[in-house]
TrEMBL record, chains A, B:
This protein's name: fructokinase
Broad enzyme group: transferase
UniProt KW Metal-binding keyword: yes
Record bears the keyword Ion transport: no
Membership in a protein family: Belongs to the ROK (NagC/XylR) family.
Source species taxonomy: Bacteria, Bacillati, Bacillota, Bacilli, Bacillales
Cofactor section: Mg(2+)
InterPro entries noted in UniProt: ATPase_NBD (IPR043129), Carb_Metab_Reg_Kinase/Isom (IPR051804), ROK (IPR000600)
Keywords on record: Magnesium, Metal-binding, Zinc
Length: 285, 285
């Protein structure tokens, strides 16, 4: 049985086909995200080469994932004007005429890492992505956690680093975790992208200080067995030991977290966790 | 079928018996918490009058609730010396020789309010207790949320109120939510208990400012449909509108939270949510 997966990102779409096992991708394509109609037709063109029987979609957000809602599967108030309120799930179902399952990109990535990657063997697995934005998703006992909706967990409250004069870029909260630690926050604070600041130790010290606080907030609420931190900003691998160190310092002995280098880890699926997770949604939903 | 419930609090034990429906209590007793052996014998004496077939226990914490752990059902590192590492669940099973089920007091209270109180009709229900300490529990689709263990969610990060010089009383984190907004924090900050400060508006303004931040942290991670706030400190009913107002201000339009006076509410079970929840554990676990 062939399965299709789409990682619908804000800047690019990744489409893949697997043969039963979502991790074994037999064909894959990637193209820039344009307007909704053109982008979906490009995806359709790719999948026409394969007789897929179901499709999973891991989408950028915010999307309405409340199954009781009339706009289930539609984008909410995204800054990407052409995608605002676009009924993605409905359009894909009409276009492909096969079962289509949808969740957020971060939830799908969490599911993929839980099943095939760094989260294997854990019962409760949190996946955090630090890219242009900031988001997190939780999988527990094979199921994606969702309350009334999925928030992407990106706006928890943190304390300012004493040496950081920046007030944050979140349009709602200023200095929440997304406002202080996303890739956009780095770029706005320093006037340069993170990848141009590799040699500036203070940048990564402050970044780790904030990410550790968000992780502490998630930890004390959710007590995950595994916390996987991925996304473009985490390509700076020096962040991992810094985050672990600040996390241990901030927790200060509260709760037995076990070995922190086994708790807070990098993803293992080589940037394919989104599209693999999209295909895994078919089994899970 | 008669069910027994124990709300095992740090200062008092409440024992109750119900006839099938946990909400219909047919006998109840309450006595101060002494040393473990005496306190359990006093409970045993009460339940001997009733042919209970199962027992539920809603305990103060921290307790080990990781079912894979060798010390499952035992107290962890509590400041109450005589209860430290006491194997409560094992002792109750030996003493009563009937099925015994255990969870934390705040989780049990959440379950009771979800089934019979202010949480009825919601799929995802958060219960927060603000008493001497601070804790929260989550019930989703009838099940108590638990990660690797239950943390009681009491140590999330918040920002200091600009007019509050107090540095917090949490022995681990100083100014986390428990350190700034628990009943103990109020007493240590002002040198008086909350009930003696009823007329001081600034006390409750600052208290609401902190509680709203904790609720925001929970909200963006969990997206509960209902948030029930109980415990001794919440007897100051003026806190509810203040918390709602600060919560709306801090969220600042991020996510559609619906009517905030329906989201953040008081418990409805008249301080019996703990012991009713204890009995409901029998059905749930």
């Amino acid at each position: 049985m062939l399965l299709g997966g789409i990682e619908a990102g804000g800047t690019k779409f990744v489409c893949a086909v697997s043969n039963g096992n979502s991790k074994q991708i037999i064909d894959k394509v990637s193209f820039p995200t344009g307007n909704p109609e053109e982008t979906l037709l490009e995806a359709k063109g790719f999948f026409e080469k394969h007789a897929i029987e179901a499709l999973g979609v891991a989408s950028f957000g915010p999307v309405d994932l409340n199954i009781k809602s009339k706009t289930y599967g539609s984008f909410l108030n995204t800054p990407k004007e052409k995608w605002k309120h676009y009924p993605l799930l409905e359009q894909l179902r009409a276009l492909f005429n096969i079962p289509v399952y949808m969740d957020t990109d971060v939830n799908a990535a969490c599911l993929a890492e839980y099943k095939f990657g760094a989260g294997q063997g854990s019962d409760t697995c949190l996946y955090i992505t630090v890219g242009t934005g900031f988001g997190a998703g939780l999988v527990q006992n094979g199921e994606i956690y969702q309350g009334k909706n999925h928030s992407e967990m990106g706006h928890v409250i943190i304390k300012k680093h004493p040496d950081d004069p920046y007030d944050g870029c979140c349009p709602y909260h200023g200095s929440c975790i997304e406002g202080m630690a996303s890739g956009l926050a780095i770029e706005k604070r320093y006037g340069k992208k993170g990848m141009e600041l590799t040699e500036n130790d203070q940048v990564w010290d402050i970044e780790a200080y904030y990410l550790a606080q968000a992780i502490m907030n998630y930890y004390v609420v959710l007590i995950p067995e595994k916390i996987i931190v991925g996304g473009g900003v985490m390509k700076q691998e020096k962040l991992y030991p810094l985050i672990r160190s600040y996390f241990a310092e901030q927790m200060n002995g509260y709760l037995d977290v076990g070995p922190v280098d086994e708790l807070i880890v990098a993803p293992e699926l080589n940037d394919e966790q989104g599209v693999i997770g999209a295909m895994e949604l078919i089994r899970t939903k």
